[in-house]
Structure formats: C-alpha cells, structure tokens
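Quarterly update from the structural biology core.
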Amino acid sequence: MTDHVRSGSGAEPEDVETLRAAGELDWEDGQEFVRRLSAAAERAPRLLVVDLAGVTFADSSVLHGLLLAHRRTADAGGRLVLAGPLREPVRRLLELSSAVGYLHLAPDTAAALADTPGPDRAV
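Predicted structure, tokenized:
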C-alpha cells in the first residue's frame, strides 16, 4: 500500500513531496509503489521523502525503482531521502546491495523533511 502526499498539502513546502509505503512490497505491490515513485521524481521536487517505516519487505524491483528515482531527483537538482526506521528486511536489502552508501537516509520522516545538511544518519 502506498500513500502519496503531494506538494502544497499545507504541511509541507510547495517543492516537497512525501511518498509513504506499508506492508510487503513484492513484485505485485512493488510495481504500484515504483510507478508512484517514478511519477513523483518526474515532477522534480526539491525534496522527495520516501517513508519506508511501515514496509515489512521490499524486493529488488523496489530497490531498482528507488535507485532510478534517486538519480532522476538528483539530476533535477533535488534530493531523495529514505525515512525510517527501516525494518530488518528492508535494511538488509539496502545493505547487501551497497545502496546504503548511495541513498540518503534519515531516522524518521520529520528528520527527512528537515533535510539537514551534513552526513546521513543511520536508520
């Protein structure tokens, strides 16, 4: 399941978007998540927060979607931040693929929305 908060929701600045996911993001459910993630990245927000705190499992198709969205957002001058806390299966996927050193991580959505400069924090 994914929940998408568009820019200008009142809680976030105009150039910030948040995408929340929950449950198992296997091939079937992951495709919808990746579609929404890709659409959000195409809008080129200054900050795209992907809240994965409720995700209990994610497969390689989700990882691929995250990496593509990260690159698209960065190419447009923005920043994609994964918000946790990440559950063990998701953390393991990121660690085994070495994506932890590539993607920006924040301990929770509030920290991701703050988009504080400096090194990424562990989640």
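Residues 27-42 form the longest helix (16 residues).
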